[in-house]
Amino acid sequence: MTDRKTIIRSVGAYLPARILTNEELAKTVDTSDEWIVQRTGIRQRHIAAEGENTSDLAAAAGRRAMENAGLEIGDIDLIVCATTTPDMTFPATAAIVQQKLGMHHGAAFDIQAVCSGFVYAVGTADSFLKNGMGKRALVIGAETASRLLDWNDRTTCVLFGDGAGAVVMEMGKPSEPERGVLATALRSDGHFWNKLYTDGGPSSTQSMGHVRMEGKEVFKHAVGMITDVVYKVLEDTGHTIEDLDWFVPHQANKRIIDGAGVKLGLPPEKVVITVDRHANTSAASVPLALNTAVADGRIKRGDLVMIEAMGGGFTWGASLIRW
Ligand code: UT7
Questions:
Q1: How many angstroms does the Cα of residue 129 sit away from the middle of ligand 1?
Q2: Lower Cβ count inside 10 Å, N or C end of the chain?
Q3: Annotated catalytic residue 278
Q4: Domain 180-322's class?
């Protein structure tokens, strides 16, 4: 294990072309734009086209991340894909992405930590690279959550959307020792699995199932779990909330993000919010938000960036990155 850190070299993202607004949704399910905006901050979500699979979204985001770094697939030797909506039960979606990107070498596997998947994937890739198990990783969060929804259940179907985001991670240069992933904290407590789950799966029902959620229960635990891991990585690195330039949270519900921001004492202008544009895209939400804030010039080299997520399992995690 080296003392050097892994850096995030670039970001990329992809959202399917089709946009489904709250108003459109209210025509088919008993809900309203007003209720959805007030309770969640969501205004619209993107829906993958027929035949467009999670691996297509993941490969598109991955290609953009590589382009933004001036890299080609030959430069990557590890693909880690966080997803809860794999193309198939097996093989791993990462393997299909590997094929779509034309990569024959290296290794590719999926991470399943639901909405926390991307933070888990960053932590995993960070450990792999620091241990010499790969030189450069394409770390992806990608979901076609729309395929897991019961479109008659208004308590869940209004909340989710499809999308993908990706980062290229590699070892930092000795000339820039301050840059990189400073610390990651990952947590889970499986006693909460039945608060947010699918009512099916290959082993239990031999079917896929649909998302089922006790929304209030998830909400009740979310802020505490988020702040728990944020404080942990701050403590591990000797930083304080005041040191943060950007807080890039999982985009599930604006009220949860606002609640965490208030509890942490974060000024709202340091919080990146994109949930209004793409709803909860599970493992894709953090890299989608990162991509937005990097592309619009908010996140710059040298900034201190906290990413965090919480979701099914329950799982939760945070990572502090010197950009
Ligand atoms: O990544 C983690 C993934 N999950 C989450 O982050 C979700 C966490 N939970 C939440 O975001 C919120 O709990 C929800 C947005 C899901 C719900 O908000 P809430 O303020 O907890 O509302 P509620 O469940 O208490 O429902 C309030 C009312 C109920 O009606 P009654 O019983 O008061 O008459 C619901 O039936 O709103 C009703 N309702 C709806 N009304 C219109 C529930 N869903 C809808 C809907 N449109 N889509």
A1: 41
A2: N
A3: no
A4: alpha beta
Residue 147 · residue 168 · CB < 8 Å: no
For the chain, which ranges sit under pLDDT 50?
A: none
Whole-angstrom distance, CA of residue 72 vs CA of residue 98? 13
Number of Cβ within a 10 Å radius of residue 232: 18
pLDDT digits (tens, 9 = 90+) for 222-258: 999 999 999 999 999 999 999 999 999 999 999 999 9
How many CB atoms neighbour CB 8 within 10 A?
29
Q: How many helices (H) and strands (E) does the chain have?
A: 10, 13
CA–CA gap between residue 207 and residue 187 (Å, rounded): 28
Atom of ligand 1 nearest to the CA of 155: 44
**Looking at 46, 210, 250, 278, which residue is catalytic?**
250
Domain ranges of the chain: 6-39+46-171, 180-322
CA distance 262 to 13: 29
**Contact present, 312 and 114 (Cβ < 8 Å):** yes
The protein residue whose alpha carbon is closest to atom 14 in ligand 1 is: 215
Query: What per-residue confidence (pLDDT) applies to 1?
Result: 59
The pLDDT value given to residue 153: 98
- Name the β-bridge partners of 165: 13, 141
For tokens 């807080």, the residue is: 247
- Look at residues 78, 87, 136 and name the one whose alpha carbon lies nearest to residue 109: 78
Catalytically annotated residue among 53, 68, 253, 280: 280
CATH architecture of 6-39+46-171: 3-Layer(aba) Sandwich (3.40)
CA–CA gap between residue 233 and residue 321 (Å, rounded): 10
Active site residue 131: no
In 3D space, the residue among 145, 52, 63, 158 whose CA is nearest the CA of residue 102 turns out to be: 63
Give pLDDT, residue 4: 87
